[in-house]
Sequence to fold (279 residues):
Amino acid sequence: MSNQSWNVTQGKAYEEAAAYITARTSLKPEIGLILGSGLGVLGDHLTDVTTIAYEQIPHFPVSTVEGHAGELLIGRLSGRPVVMMKGRFHMYEGYGPELTSFPVRVMRELGVTKLVVTNAAGGINTSYEPGDLMLISDHINLTGRNPLIGPNEQRFGDRFPDMSEAYSRRLRTLAHETARENGFELREGVYIGVLGPSYETPAEIRMMRILGADAVGMSTVAEVIAARHCKIEVLGISCISNMASGILDQPLSHTEVIETTERVKSRFLRLVSEVVPKL
Ligand code: HPA
Fold:
């Protein structure tokens, strides 16, 4: 990593971004949400909403992927004040891990103590089916990158943060209960994070299965590392948008990912909007 990228994320960048946002809303969000590919629809369910385009926020990166809107929303979800990222930053876009997780620290500055991260992921566990929702029980960071590399920002957290319960057991229990109340079950498994943007080869997927992964995706791990560093409690939800490479005799496509998330949207919406007031 270059010194230049450290400069971007150090100093007053987080405070300046947070101050810009705070000046535009009277809400004090304690819950953050990061919405993955095709899941931005949750933003339509906010009330008292303030929408800010990423490019307006000082120091914020801008997302470039189809299906990712690039807006920060502050509003109420089921009555609770939340801050929501519609669209996130991926390392395959060329951002370093410290930039992909930049918004997490801005959320911390806003007062966020709980984070719901969602993503689309490929199913590695062969008992899964496209359309399943999986609570992330743990992750494997296969990106070879870490957002905390560089001088430690002690005001956010310790040099060597604990990752032994990266995805809160308490929040997972609440999510399972919420799904059951709505008549469906959630999977629970290990998410393995890769850089992308190429999908995996069948040999890579076989390796990941041996390593203990249930689903694979190109986001989330850097954000969650940054969140745990500053003691934010995390609930992670993967939408299994496709079976991972080599499981079915068909190529993978981003179109399939978007189509599947469209299909499970209503369950996903119910789950998140009903779990948020319980967090
Ligand atoms: N691999 C990696 N990332 C993904 C996939 C996949 O199969 N599906 C959705 N995101």
Q: What stands out?
A: The helical segments are 3-9, 13-22, 97-100, 102-110, 169-181, 202-211, 221-229, 254-275. The pocket of hypoxanthine is lined by residues 120-122, 199-200, 216-218, 241-242, 244, 252, 257 (CB under 6 Å).
